[in-house]
Amino acid sequence: MCLEANFRLSGRCVAKALDDVGRHRGWPTAITVDNGTEFTSKALDEWAYRRGIKLDYTRPGKPTDNGLIESFNGRLRDEFLNVNEFITLHDAREKLRAWQDDYNHHRPHGSLGNLTPSEFVNSRSVQPQEAARL
Questions:
Q1: Is the N or the C terminus of the chain less surrounded, counting Cβ atoms within 10 Å?
Q2: Does this model's pTM top 0.70?
Q3: Is 93 found in the same domain as 71?
Q4: Is residue 119's pLDDT more than 60?
């Protein structure tokens, strides 16, 4: 999971973050996004086109089209944004990194069979020696 704290995110910032994730996890064939300006930007459209990734836009006003992300956004709001104060952008980024580390590596999730997200991903990922045999 990639979380970015900023005053405003452009399509270029989103593309850079997706590049960072893609280099570690590989590239999906499609990404579901809402209709926010950072996702409808020319920069993100060009980024996706160059990589052969389809941008699948949700219907306006239909958060249920992307229920998993909307659920995560609610959890982020309830557990992080509504309970922290931020003095600076740097402060927000540091606190966000700590929350993300706890969320991904220390907190079991019932929807993942009581594994942490990192344990779940590692249990399903192709290991390097397995990939060499494919």
A1: C
A2: yes
A3: no
A4: yes
